[in-house]
Amino acid sequence: MATVPSISAFERDTAVAPAGDGVWQADISSAWTVPRGGPNGGYIAAMMLRALAGAVLDPDRAPRSLTLHYLRAPAPGRPAQIHVSVEREGRTLTSLSARMVQDDRTMVLALAAFASDFPAAAEYAAPAPDVGPPPELHVVPAGPGIPEIAQRAAMAPVFGPGVMSGGDEAVVGGWLRLAEPRVADAAAVAFYADAWLPSPFALLKAPTPAPTVDLTIHFRTRLPHPGMTPETPVLARFSSSTASGGFFEEDGAIWAPDGTLLAQSRQLALLLPGA
């Protein structure tokens, strides 16, 4: 059984601190940087979500939607500021915007919605994929050429032909959790939305730069989901139907082991030629 640290690297590295006037101080860790790129988009999403959540005064309002546009890659190992504005606070829903700023330049823009539950005219859900119970998850071992971010998640692939397999469909995913077990709260799920290798990598034979242009995450239930422990993984599936003009889209879905849909994601990213 994995040991649960009192404060995980994820919590420490995505922490934000209030600095007054709607500004939150953040330190961009180098431990979540992707090869030939900047910090992982899901890592930045989790950090932005923490700042946005800190500006929502009603604890009953859970995150429902988060959209991020990545203008520039923040420099790792350096501080940044997250400027949060409450655009509208209604009786049930709060809409917010945020900007991550580093060296007086805007790095990331975000829009978010937090809300209480609404009365529903109907309740329905497509079933989760039937893949059986979670197996043992593994972390990529450290070694030459292995980026540190590869040790940040424990995985067990389920979907698709396998990354860098030269397969015939752009599908990836499987069971997933942080390497240091933590309950899948909204910040962790935001990271999971961009934690797997990009789905076009199933078609390729070698990795290539794939920076995210925009990422939207829809949180489909309150998090953490009841019954999930720190060691409980999520089931994540990511797929792409089209790559054209250097861009590809990726649709994701993240489920709890009991089949509850936790979140859906969609992103537009670049698929650049390898070095």
Describe this structure in words.
This protein has 275 residues and is mostly beta strands. It has a single domain (9-117, 138-270), classed as Acyl-CoA thioesterase, double hotdog domain (Porin, Beta Barrel), CATH 2.40.160.210. The protein is built from three helices and 13 strands. Strands 1, 2, 3, 4, 5, 6, 7, 8, 9, 10, 11, 12 and 13 form a 13-stranded antiparallel beta sheet that branches. A hairpin with a 3-residue loop joins strand 4 and strand 5 (93-102). Helix 2 (41-54) packs antiparallel against helix 3.
Chain-wise SSE layout:
Elements: H1 9-13, E1 16-20, E2 23-28, H2 41-54, E3 62-70, E4 78-89, E5 93-102, E6 105-115, E7 153-157, E8 171-178, H3 186-192, E9 212-219, E10 234-239, E11 243-244, E12 247-255, E13 261-270
Antiparallel strand pairs: 1-2, 2-4, 3-6, 3-9, 4-5, 5-6, 7-8, 8-10, 9-13, 10-12, 11-12, 12-13
